[in-house]
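Q&A FORM
Asked by: J.P.
Topic: structure of Alpha/beta hydrolase-fold protein

PROVIDED:
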Amino acid sequence: MNLKSSAIVLATTLLCGICYAQTQTATQEKQTAPLEDFKPSTLNQPGQQYPQVNSQGYARFRMVAPQAQSVIVSLGLGGTRGGTPLTKVTDSVWMGTTAGPMEEGFHYYRVTVDGGVFNDPGTLNFYGSTRWESGIEIPAHDQDFYALKDVPHGHVQQIFFPSKSTNTSRRAFVYTPPGYEKGKSKRYPVLYLQHGWGEDETAWTNQGHANLIMDNLIAEGKIKPFIIVMTYGMTNDIRPGGGGLRNFDIKPFQTVLLDELIPYVDAYFRTIADQSHRAMAGLSMGGFETHTITLARPDLFSYYGLLSGGTYKPEEIKDKSKVKLIFMSCGSFENPDGVTKAAEALKAAGFNAVSYVSPNTRHEFQTWRRSLYVLAPMLFKD
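REPLIED BY: S.T.
REPLY: Here is the structure written out as tokens.
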């Protein structure tokens, strides 16, 4: 099987996994009547009271659609986790509450009004499903690790780097740790961190809070500061009508990352520009990209991370001495046994392999926030 065929097969498998995970029920617990302690979601537009969430994790939605005959809120990436029908409560207002509590963390959603798909004007939008989707946050019991705190903060800056292979300038976001701007000689390791299918280079900071996770870990003295680079992981058209994942070929993106972005970052940022101080990780499709590229170019990366993005096999890695860490994770409602067993097989073969299973989460950002929180302290320890 050639590289493009392998890419299509694995990417399709990952997408099927996404769809399967997101069509599951929102909770395995017995449904109960929601408590009436609803508060506006933290992701609402300024001054907007809906959507709301309560202490149990239920979500309540309100739409103004006077001429509508049907209003449905669909949750999950692409609206694939079933719908919450809203009821018309006045001549123009529709309201409804999820049938049960939702899992902790960030969720995409969309509104269908008489068959047309719209975003909720009450909340902020986030790029997913190859479009801007509405977002809602269900407060998590462990949200402190990505909370905005009174600690020194790093900077996230947008850069544009020349790409001869695609005949354009491409965008990336670069996180530099607190104190980077004040230094003149100190150099830093780099993590290249990839988003999932249908998302873009904004996902890890907007949905994932990667910068806040880093700031808090650094403030607590739990990690060695490093740079994170996030760029768009596709080079072809994946919008509706563009062929989707069926036409995905990783080779052009591999060229962009290895031959154009990495040299640009090493030239314009104070990096430690060698294999032993460079890592690559990604969620879902970004994990597939990480898996393929790290195996193809072990001379460039020494730390590998697959977040709900598959696993490595010992026989795939030709030179054990080049790999310092293999990290694999997923949500407990995904494929935890596969991840755990893969790590055990790698350990038995002499690799430094770690598995992590996020409790009570699926193929979603709470899984990946927690995964980054666990992974980051393991990077660049030498």
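FOLLOW-UP: Residues 3-22 form the longest helix (20 residues).
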